[in-house]
Design a protein that fits this description.
Length: 159
């Protein structure tokens, strides 16, 4: 599945990419929130830095290819999705992909600062990312998705 815009063939409006089950990113956010909570609890330690690096690397395939490309997405498709009814609606994959990029930037900054010797930044970055992932997992509010949609609205307003 591609997350790039495709044209309608007649040069008119671009078609949105194929939709994704919105429950997948929420499950992935729940798994990620649990890992980030552990990072916060570990505090400014090397173990926390290592775990935050694992989380940051987990965001990379999602930012590059979409949430379906993450190991959390695989867990959802393999173990959770088969036990659920079909989704009521499908979601545009671009906002969750952008949210993965935001997660990568936040956790990546924490890892970079930790590697530079500022271990106190590790639980702070994890805490910020935890708030976003916990909101997504518990109430379905994806902050990165909202930032993406706001950016799209601002683009259209300028055009």
């Amino acid at each position: 599945m591609t997350t790039t815009d495709r044209t309608a063939g007649d040069g008119a409006r671009p078609e949105p990419p194929a939709g994704i089950d919105p429950r997948g990113p929420r499950v992935g956010a729940g798994i990620t929130a649990a890992l980030l909570a552990v990072v916060v609890l570990l505090g400014p330690t090397t173990a926390a830095l290592v775990l935050l690096a694992v989380v940051a690397l987990s965001f990379l395939p999602g930012a590059l290819r979409g949430t379906h490309a993450t190991w959390q997405g695989w867990l959802f498709r393999r173990f959770v999705r088969p036990r659920l009814a079909p989704p009521e609606h499908l979601e545009d994959p671009r906002p969750p992909r952008f949210a993965q990029l935001v997660g990568l930037l936040v956790t990546g900054a924490g890892v970079a600062l930790g590697l530079a010797g500022v271990l106190a930044a590790v639980p702070w970055a994890a805490g910020i990312a935890f708030l976003a992932t916990a909101l997504n997992a518990t109430v379905g509010l994806c902050l990165g998705c909202e930032i993406y949609l706001l950016g799209r609205r601002l683009q259209r307003a300028r055009a």
